[in-house]
Amino acid sequence: MSRVHVSIMRRALTVAATAIIAAGIAACGAPDYTYVKNSGEKTYFRVPATWRQVDQAGLDYMTREDNPDSVSAQVRKRMTWSVAYDAHAEPTAAHLFSLTTTDEPIAYAKVVHLTEDQANLVSFDALRNLFLPVSDSARASAFEAGTLLPGFELLVDEVLTPSDGVRGVRVVYNYELPNGVLHTFDQTTYVNNDASVYYMLVIRCSARCYKARAGEIEGVATSFTVRSKP
Asked: Residues of the signal sequence (predicted)?
């Protein structure tokens, strides 16, 4: 074989190898999911890769309970971890907490270390009511206070015992917002054995959105995993 033929063959093999590599990369493509974890808290879940993280400063602002410069706020910050992912093109914590329509799903995870007094109050109903009133007694109290939203429907209520170290509940429920749009809230909350830590994942969107994207949302909800020591 002449040198010319050898050179042509080498170039052909190089082109072929490059094409194979490129095809392999294209086949792999972008990842389907973003895996969210807090290794220290042994808490994990996944969201579709198209969902984007909500600005943490905005999320902290929307969830503040007292003056951020206060001692109690600093203590609370050390005892709490939170993160949110939004399917909307413009992710914002407002899609989680506002009384306007959320037309694409948003997921909010939170881990909170409790004081001894708080731990003594933990029950399955307390876990159900962490985001919005769900139990009969909690909704009655909200009604008396004039803060209860209308249109409540309880769709799912199940006790979860995924391991010896944690137990919890999953509730899925509807509330009608002031604009008349029914919204669905999918909430999973765990607590460790001594009730010193709770772990919560809430997914929210309009009822129509929830039905249309049920498989996608179910995948996020069921991926929520806590591996806590007993």
From this structure: 1-22
Output helix, strand, coil percentages for the chain, rounded to the nearest 5. Answer: 35, 30, 30
Q: Structural domain of residue 18, as residue ranges?
A: 1-30
> Would the pLDDT of 5 be above 50?
no
Q: Which of 89, 108, 110 is nearest to 97 (CA)?
A: 108
Q: Do residues 85 and 129 both lie within one domain?
A: yes
Q: How confident is the model at residue 74 (pLDDT cuts 50, 70, 90)?
A: low
Same domain, 55 and 96: yes
How far is 187 from 103, CA to CA, in rounded Å? Answer: 18
pTM across the whole model:
0.83
Phi, psi values for residue 5, rounded to 5°: -65, -40
Is the domain of 160 the same as that of 129? yes
b vs e for 135-150, b when ≥16 Cβ sit within 10 Å of the residue's Cβ?
A: beebbeebeeeeebbe
